[in-house]
């Protein structure tokens, strides 16, 4: 390993998180957030729920951990939500920086990526993370891809439904191809059959996919993440032929109501900064920007 001046360095590579690894990574995350005052998108709760009941094989590696003795000093994780891309984010203990730890972990991540079908790797960094931004820009071939706002619901006022026609129902396996089709429309995301999101499997991990319907006709969808202590809204979209009717606001309102009914005190979502219509909608419903995440792209 190309790591300098450590007493007893070691690497722990895993396909899935276990409780011990989750605790170590969570503690390091808390330390880094307090030190840096920035945001990390690690999806730890979601990943831990997905790992329940799975074997600890190394068929694929998603968790890359560097220790000095018993102390976790560096972590990098791969998030694979299906499709042709993976997301990568990580951190290093404040007392162990500039020792080559991040560079070493990234070399293992790149090697793992080379074995996968995903054609793109997205590297994530908080806009205010000077070290994160500098490292990503030092990677050969990397290009800026897009920026997302993280927004939290700040207003407690109840939103009124626009039409009262929209209903949400939990997605089933029969909706798998429709979910993939909608993702390709909203997010320009191609999905291979083997990478499609299976609603029942996602639900076990705490990501509840809802199909939005009007008169029993699917007009859009939304994903509600209930895997952590923050209720999150993802993948919200309305099919093109049903837009400009207020259905997006209704889907968002119903999603918020569903999360509140499950006793979530904090509700957040993420949105591409270029999606001005969505930004206007979210702001009008009481969401405010709390952090900015930049995405950079590597292609094979």
Spatial shape: globular
Mean pLDDT: 91
One letter per element, helices H and strands E, the order comes to EHHEEEHEHEEHHEEEHEHE
Named CATH topology of the largest domain: Aminopeptidase
The profile of the biggest β sheet is:
12 strands, mixed
User: What amount of the residues lies in strands?
Assistant: 25-35%
Number of separate strands:
12
CATH architecture of the largest domain: 3-Layer(aba) Sandwich
CATH 4th-level superfamily of the largest domain:
Gcn5-related N-acetyltransferase (GNAT)
Radius of gyration over C-alpha positions, nearest whole angstrom: 20 Å
Distance between the termini: 24 Å
Task: Report on this structure.
- The protein is an alpha+beta fold.
- It has two domains: 9-140, Gcn5-related N-acetyltransferase (GNAT) (Aminopeptidase, 3-Layer(aba) Sandwich), CATH 3.40.630.30; 153-292, Aminopeptidase (3-Layer(aba) Sandwich).
- The chain contains eight helices and twelve strands.
- It has helices at residues 19-36, 44-51, 101-114, 130-138, 176-187, 199-204, 247-261, 276-284, and strands at residues 9-14, 63-68, 71-79, 85-92, 120-126, 143-153, 166-170, 207-214, 217-225, 231-238, 267-272, 287-299.
- It has a twelve-stranded mixed β-sheet with strand order 1-2-3-4-5-12-6-11-10-9-8-7, sandwiched between helices.
- Strand 9 and strand 10 form a beta hairpin.
- The longest helix has 18 residues, at 19-36.
- The radius of gyration is 20 Å and the shape is globular.
- The relative contact order is 0.16.
């Amino acid at each position: 390993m190309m790591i300098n001046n450590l007493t007893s360095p070691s690497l722990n590579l895993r396909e899935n998180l276990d409780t011990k690894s989750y605790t170590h990574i969570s503690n390091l995350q808390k330390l880094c957030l307090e030190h840096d005052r920035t945001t990390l998108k690690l999806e730890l709760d979601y990943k831990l729920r997905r790992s329940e009941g799975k074997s600890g094989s190394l068929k694929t590696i998603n968790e890359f951990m560097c220790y000095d003795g018993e102390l976790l000093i560096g972590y990098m994780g791969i998030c694979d939500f299906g499709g042709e891309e993976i997301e990568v984010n990580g951190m290093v203990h404040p007392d162990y920086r500039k020792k080559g730890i991040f560079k070493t972990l990234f070399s293992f991540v790149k090697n793992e990526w080379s074995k996968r079908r995903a054609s793109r790797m997205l590297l994530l960094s908080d806009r205010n993370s000077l070290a994160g931004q500098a490292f990503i820009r030092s990677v050969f071939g990397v290009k800026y891809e897009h920026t997302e706002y993280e927004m939290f619901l700040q207003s407690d006022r109840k939103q009124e439904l626009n039409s009262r026609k929209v209903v949400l129902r939990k997605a089933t396996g029969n909706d798998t191809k429709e979910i993939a089709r909608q993702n390709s429309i909203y997010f320009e995301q191609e999905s291979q059959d083997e990478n499609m999101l299976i609603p029942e499997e996602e639900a076990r991990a705490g990501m509840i996919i809802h199909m939005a319907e009007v008169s029993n006709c699917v007009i859009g969808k939304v994903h509600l993440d209930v895997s952590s202590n923050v209720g999150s809204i993802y993948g919200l979209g309305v099919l093109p032929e049903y837009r400009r009717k207020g259905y997006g606001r209704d889907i968002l309102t119903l999603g918020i109501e569903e999360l509140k009914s499950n006793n979530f005190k904090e509700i957040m979502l993420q949105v591409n900064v270029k999606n001005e219509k969505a930004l206007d909608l979210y702001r009008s419903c009481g969401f405010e920007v709390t952090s900015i995440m930049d995405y950079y792209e590597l292609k094979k």
